[in-house]
Amino acid sequence: MSSNFTFHTTAAEVADAFASELSGKNVLVTGTSLGGLGFETARVLAKYANLVIITGYNAERLALSEETIKKEFPYANIRKLTLDLSSLAAVRAAAAQVNTYPEPLHVLINNAVADIGPFKVTPDNLEFQIATGFIGPFLFTNLLIPKLLAARTETYAPRIVCLSSIAHGFGPGVDPAALGAPISERYPTIFGPYYETKSAMILFASELSKRAEGKLLAFSVNPGCPYDFFFIAEFVESELLAVIYTNLLDDAAAGSDHHGSPAGSPTTTRTRTRESTRPAPRVRVTRHFTRG
Ligand SMILES: NC(=O)c1ccc[n+]([C@@H]2O[C@H](COP(=O)([O-])OP(=O)(O)OC[C@H]3O[C@@H](n4cnc5c(N)ncnc54)[C@H](OP(=O)(O)O)[C@@H]3O)[C@@H](O)[C@H]2O)c1
């Protein structure tokens, strides 16, 4: 096991480091459409796990995720599960399906989240974001607990991971009464339900872990802002600009310094590092920008 993970460590490198722990494990990840953290999680786990159950409410996107993982790891054991977390009936149906699987379930990763948007309620009369990001996963997890516990051995406690966010701290926390009877006035901005969802996920993982008394382990995790291709492209570009800019400044300074180098010519008198002039990296401009 590596203890040298850094800011730059990739998910694939972490999976490589835990290859022996992942071997033989059956893992279910919610929200695995291409481009999201759930997909990336499923992708890197698929290299070593015995079975990765990928989930989504859109059959086409689910198939695309499976196809993409299989292209990279043809031997991977991927199983698709239709799961719409915004509907309690759909959650019950999906959990019933999982409970028919012959394999035990070692790990459940509650990753899925709805897009941030205007206040709306589900057919179950729950706020949409909270229903998808917390109430659906809460029900799903509870329905799968017997299956998770069946994976328990003397040396292994099944795991439940709930994705949270730093955004949990931007809201007033969770109002249990409001969860069951949502009103738009409680959410003055469109982000309010997301903040509440992420707070609820932290409390859920914490309480579950406490009540399970070691029979299973529950965690909430803030993944931070991931680096992706948009980010990297932007970063590389800003790095290049920083280098050019630094050299221009150095050259200009050198033009009037005691070395007497003419402005605009190459110089060896750099005192400024690239870091000191590097523009602050920006987070990619997508819907992720609204999270964090
Ligand atoms: N990305 C970040 O910067 C960041 C920062 C902090 C925390 N997080 C947390 O990390 C997790 C993943 O974030 P992400 O940025 O990867 O999100 P994302 O790209 O928006 O992915 C969300 C996933 O949830 C699925 N989903 C949406 N509605 C669903 C529903 N009704 N039923 C089932 N699945 C549904 C989506 O499917 P479709 O794509 O098919 O709609 C998608 O696969 C979230 O819990 C988020 O709160 C992310």
From TrEMBL:
Low complexity: bias regions: 261-270
The keyword Oxidoreductase belongs to this UniProt entry's keyword annotation: yes
Domain of life: Eukaryota
Signal peptide feature range: none
Keyword entries, A-Z: Oxidoreductase
Region annotation (Disordered) ranges: 255-292
One Pfam family recorded for the sequence: adh_short
SUPFAM superfamilies for the chain: NAD(P)-binding Rossmann-fold domains
GO MF, any single term: oxidoreductase activity
Oxidoreductase listed as a keyword: yes
Family: Belongs to the short-chain dehydrogenases/reductases (SDR) family.
PANTHER family: NAD(P)-BINDING ROSSMANN-FOLD SUPERFAMILY PROTEIN, RETINOL DEHYDROGENASE
Full protein name: Short chain dehydrogenase reductase
UniProt organism field: Roridomyces roridus
